[in-house]
Design a protein that fits this description.
mainly alpha
């Protein structure tokens, strides 16, 4: 290895650092929150430990420059109504009210389609979460949904579909769906089969 002056690099001609300089370098490169990069779990109301990831660098939302106030209002309205339909599904599943469960499921599907049309207002991770939820409820018989599955939809809409959704939210969404008995990759598999 050649040094800056064209001389071979060796330990003998390497720059010397004092103990104080080394300590300063170590402090400067140490993470500010030692536990920030570690994964933790939190007990949820669904009966299992919901994965919760603590990103070491939080990502702030980036509002799109092409979003109009009317579009933002429509998106927030659709999201609120989608959450309400999911909550109604959960209540219907608890009461074994299959008619309400089926009708609220259809309404949720419609709302998610409207939300998908406004996907350009959010970033890729947010779109992925919407896509996964749409995939598991597409072309299904909602009257067969159980309370745990409906509660999972509520939890995802409440906690993971937010403006600064990131890859940790995507991973948590997939885990929650699979633990509730959904095939999170069904929508993607169906599209691939159709394209072949």
């Amino acid at each position: 290895m050649i040094g800056e002056q064209g001389t071979p690099f060796s330990v003998a001609n390497a720059p010397a650092f004092s103990h104080g300089q080394i300590s300063s370098l170590m402090e400067a490169t140490a993470p500010s929150e030692p536990g920030a990069a570690y994964e933790s779990t939190q007990r949820s109301t669904l009966g299992f430990a919901e994965p919760r990831f603590e990103p070491s660098t939080p990502r702030l939302p980036k509002p799109p420059s092409n979003a109009t106030p009317a579009q933002r209002y429509a998106l927030n309205t659709h999201l609120g109504e989608a959450l309400e339909h999911a909550r109604n599904m959960e209540a219907a599943a608890v009461d074994a009210d299959v008619l309400t469960l089926a009708s609220e499921g259809v309404l949720l599907t419609t709302k998610l389609s409207l939300i998908w049309r406004l996907r350009h207002l959010r970033e890729d991770d947010w779109r992925s979460i919407i896509n996964f939820v749409q995939g598991v409820i597409a072309k299904v018989e909602f009257e067969h949904f159980n309370q745990k599955q409906c509660a999972t939809l509520v939890r995802i809409l409440e906690r993971h579909i937010h403006p600064d959704a990131n890859d940790e939210d995507v991973r948590s969404t997939v885990m929650l769906l699979e633990r509730a008995g959904f095939n999170a990759w069904r929508g993607i598999s169906d599209r691939e089969t159709t394209e072949q």
